[in-house]
Amino acid sequence: KNLDAVHDITVAYPHNIPQTERHLLLGDFPKEIHFHVHRYPVDTLPTSQEDLQLWCRKRWEEKEERLHSFYQGKKNFYFTGQTVIPPCKSELRVLVVKLLSILYWTLFSPAMCLLIYLYSLVRWYFIIIIVIFVLQERIFGGLEIIELACYRFLHRQPHLNAKKKE
């Protein structure tokens, strides 16, 4: 009841494929990333477990075929829908963002540790926030479940509720 659609997302890298975090730390970032996204509304999915397993297997086969075709030379995904290509980013802009990110995380992490060590108020704040997150995970099943419930509550449609009562 918490699912309105299944999104099938295929990701491909035409130039370099980062295998581990080490590649990213060494600056071996992909120059391009291609996404193929297909949304399947929940009412179009099979209802029986066997049919759903067959449906999933077929999606995986399509995904494998799509990736095979991508890496065999096409270097793009065939699509029938609408594509959104973000504006090109200059190498300078990417370099500046990398440097700022490294600077931020290099300063932020030790600063937070220092604040936690020096100030009991900050220490208690972090302890309380950690306890709240652990409790909401254990009690409600995660923040995404709470967000989904809030979304449904705020976007409920009165005419659907009237049909259910009949």
Biggest sheet architecture: 2 strands, antiparallel
Total count of strands: 2
Number of helices: 6
Spatial extent as radius of gyration: 23 Å
Helix content: 55-70%
Strand order of the largest sheet: 1-2
In total, the number of domains comes to 2
In percent terms, what proportion of residues is strand? 5-15%
Mean residue pLDDT = 83
Uncertain runs with pLDDT below 50, 5 residues or more?
none
| H-E order | EHEHHHHH
The end-to-end span amounts to 20 Å
What structural category arises from helix and sheet content? mainly alpha
Shape: flat
Write out key terms for the chains shown.
2 domains, 10% strand, 166 residues, mainly alpha, Acyltransf_C, single chain
Folded structure, characterized:
This protein is mainly α. It has 2 domains: 5-80, no CATH class; 91-163, no CATH class. Helix content is 60%, strand content 10%. The protein contains 6 helices and 2 strands. It has helices at residues 21-25, 49-74, 91-118, 120-140, 143-154, 158-165, and strands spanning 5-12, 34-41. Strands 1-2 form a two-stranded antiparallel ribbon. Helix 3 crosses helix 4 (120-140). The chain is flat, with a radius of gyration of 23 Å. The two termini are 20 Å apart. The mean pLDDT is 83.
